[in-house]
């Protein structure tokens, strides 16, 4: 009886896995790759790279809301850490385009970004919020966060301005968070079909802090109030800082010097 | 100039020609919006070859109160009109669209027709008037007239790729009239700078338009199409909702389902539309998919349902183990965190699926969505498992006043927890004997299963509990799983007549009471009908029911309501054979049909659903004497409830742009495209 058990389990395992393909990634060592470089400002840290591969050979069945079955490309995600280049502020990762394996995986998209490593510098109990993210799509598929907003040809160089934003919220429990306020949403999304180099340089303007306080009760006419670096307080129904106003404040301050 | 022949001359280098002054031309432009209102006091520039070669200065000025520009003394050259972008954009943002759109066909596969061609002729009343008056007529979008890209707040995601419907010309070359079209007035009808917003009402009362649009959003949550393809989340919100020539559609299984949309200023467009998919690895450790979209007034979240393929999603649906309803991902270190509900339990599988999404998309679910809700209405929807996740999501945001519409959702919370979530407005749609709303059973199964099967019980118990569905009454103690929210049900109703087993009195004495003469047999009558029932519309809740008195005998009372629609529960038990009732293809058509019926109850020809109901009522009259009493009473009440659904359109008709939204939907919706099972 005892001897028979492993056999039964083995049979079960074999019957479950069947003659399915080995779905693992096996990039060839000398294959072509895409280099992702992030120039990380002092106060920030680089977030983990989330890399997605797709395969047209290994598909799976999905259903529409009406119950119709259809085939979708298989996908697989791996996480990579960016590696610091010597003592510089540049962090680099190489992503093999050909993911290899029996499924012939192809690089599909990558999600990365920067974040505050020590949010407690902004006060006790302050946690990191969001912002400073980048998604680059290398094919015509969606990323885990959907499609691209901006399409570029050739290599991709991203330089974006960011401002520290400390937000106090009350609805649903008190929280104080520091985020990166940039142009657009928390992720900037690109499609770069021919890119071999992706370079991201977030420019953090630490001296220009914007703070906001959320109302304590949700009702019509109650809005978050923002205090901008020039001391102005604005309550205009926005839920995130006015990026153009921040840029204008900084440019005015810089031109005075 | 009588001598038209001029040749090179060997004697003289020029020849004197005698003619009058060069004939000069004029042109008039009249700028109107779609309602025929003038676009007044706008700065313009007009250019021709004569101004470009600095022969004469540019024409400059402002449109007059009638929106008219008159240019005199023109050379016989093509003339180009340009309007100041900022002021034109500001003006056009606040002009309304006409209800009916041109609705050109979308170019199909390998069709080279442009997506946004010139508007087809014979469509606009302004065109008719212009042509009747002998004027030229042109339908223009702002980008064909303005001198550059106006600034927007919120800004465009990529200013180099402005939305192609409004800005078809990347060079901003202005609008040019050829030299042979001078000496007349040209009426320029300019499409307002608007965007579509789903027509949704953030209110506690049931709304048919809410139910319809949120059903479509629950379908959209299933979309896995690449972003550029018709029917993807991004394509819907960022392209279709900016294409004012067509009504936006949701695509599923080859069916094109039109949405009910209202036009809003371009700055109030959907600026954020993110489909999120917890794509971890294949096979998925847990595959949760959702999307959210945000515009100036709405935060919209749609949760995707499960794989219904033989209930193959064991990670979520099958684990019927109630657990304490706190969601860890909501809590951050060192911050006090309130549980989802102070009491009761939540389904383990659903909580895990929700937590997975919370973990993978912490920034979206923890920050972007909650922050965006301020000053906006929060709408959450989902089908099947998506409904359960939607309810968990709504519970986690209950201070933000979420409005939830679900379709065929399973039980998610236990009774104690549900009673703590009373303030969440939730309408739960159930299609007849769809089995999913009947799982997990109304019982505290955990202990039973655990005792029976040990640690595997929570998974193995699934098959067992499906078999025991009807026996679930046995477990009515402790804190059972139960339903949240007000029910909206598609109820298939039949009628039975009672007849004696045998009509012959001669049998009377043969075998006493068991004889055929003394036996009554119920026969099912042929006419069936499917009701769309929303019990909360009954006059108990309806303060302004004008004819409440007359309807007293037929309407739902508190007592009959509790009997027909038991609270926290389903009126009909789900059956395994009813699985075909579960897909959105069996929910959406009833709402679609009802919406068409309610918009115009006197449509000609009548809809099949209306004819069926007429036949059903006729059948009642024909068999009045012999009908089963209870059933008769019930069906009368249901007919009355059904007739009340039209009232829920009143709020839409009174809303800003709502009447046009319904008119537009009625114009594009095909009444013969009827997919209702019972009716078609």
From TrEMBL, chain A:
It comes from the Bacteria. Residues 1-20 form the signal peptide. Keywords: Signal. PROSITE patterns: PROKAR_LIPOPROTEIN. This is Lipoprotein. It comes from Pseudomonas monachiensis.
TrEMBL record, chain B:
Pfam families: Lipase_3. SUPFAM superfamilies: alpha/beta-Hydrolases. Residues 301-442 form the Fungal lipase-type domain. Keywords: Hydrolase. One of its GO terms (molecular function) is hydrolase activity. It comes from the Bacteria. Its EC number is 3.1.1.-. PANTHER family: ALPHA/BETA-HYDROLASES SUPERFAMILY PROTEIN, FUNGAL LIPASE-LIKE DOMAIN-CONTAINING PROTEIN. This is Lipase family protein.
